[in-house]
C-alpha cells in the first residue's frame, strides 16, 4: 500500500533529510588517502547521534541478506555498486566512492547517496558520476502531480542508456516514510505514461546506479551484501528522497 504523507509528516522527513545530508557531507570531507571506510562510518554515526537522530541502516535486515547490516553508511568503492559494508579498506588516490546513508527522526526516515573521488578523478569516472547525477535530477523533475511513475523511470533510464551505461538489474528507488523502504518500487528504467499516478504527499527515494561497462549484471560479495559489477567496471550512485507536492517535487535530503 502506498501511503501519502501529511504536511506535518513531510516536515519531520525534512528534518531527517537534513541529518542525512550532514552525515554525507562529513564523510566526504573526511575522505582522503589512508582513511578507512570504517572511520567514515564512525564519523557518520557521530553526526547522526549529535543531531538526535537514529541510523536507518544499522542492524537493518532485509530478506535477501544473511546478516543484519553492521554500519550506518553503505560505502561502495570502484566496482562495488551498492551496499558495501564499511570495513578496514583504506582509501587510495583515484578511488571512486559512493556513500549511501539513512536516518530517522520521530519515526520518519530520510535516505540519500553521493559519489565522489579521492584526489583527481579519471575523466571517464568524472563523466560517469556526473551523468548519474544528471539522471537523478531528470527523475526528480518528472516527479510531478499527475505524472506517472513510469515518467520518472523513463527519465532516469534515458540518460543512462544514452551514454551506454548499465543499470543495476532489479534495483532502483523506493517509497520512504515510517519505514526506510516502502511501496512503491521506483525502477531506473521504464515506459513514460505507465504505472502509478503521482499524487501530492507521495515520498520516494530516486536513486540511479550506473555501471560504466554497459552491463546490467552484478555479482554478490561473500558477505551477502555488496553488489559488484559483473564486468568489474566502475559504478556511480546518486540518491535523494523527494516529496511530490502541488508546487512540484521537493528534495527532502538537501542541507
TrEMBL record:
Gene Ontology molecular function: any one: initiator methionyl aminopeptidase activity
A GO CC term assigned to this protein in UniProt: cytosol
Catalytic activity annotation: Release of N-terminal amino acids, preferentially methionine, from peptides and arylamides
Positions annotated to bind a divalent metal cation 1: 100, 111, 239
Occurrences of domain Peptidase M24 (ranges): 11-245
Cofactor(s) named in the record: Co(2+); Zn(2+); Mn(2+); Fe(2+)
Amino acids binding a divalent metal cation 2: 111, 174, 207, 239
Taxonomy, superkingdom: Bacteria
Note describing how the cofactor binds: Binds 2 divalent metal cations per subunit. Has a high-affinity and a low affinity metal-binding site. The true nature of the physiological cofactor is under debate. The enzyme is active with cobalt, zinc, manganese or divalent iron ions. Most likely, methionine aminopeptidases function as mononuclear Fe(2+)-metalloproteases under physiological conditions, and the catalytically relevant metal-binding site has been assigned to the histidine-containing high-affinity site.
UniProt keywords, alphabetically: Aminopeptidase, Hydrolase, Metal-binding, Protease
Keyword Hydrolase assigned: yes
Keyword Protease listed: yes
BP-aspect Gene Ontology terms: proteolysis
Record-listed substrate binding positions: 83, 181
PANTHER family cross-referenced by the UniProt entry: METHIONINE AMINOPEPTIDASE
SUBUNIT field: Monomer.
Function noted in UniProt: Removes the N-terminal methionine from nascent proteins. The N-terminal methionine is often cleaved when the second residue in the primary sequence is small and uncharged (Met-Ala-, Cys, Gly, Pro, Ser, Thr, or Val). Requires deformylation of the N(alpha)-formylated initiator methionine before it can be hydrolyzed.
Record-given protein name: Methionine aminopeptidase
UniProt organism field: Kibdelosporangium aridum
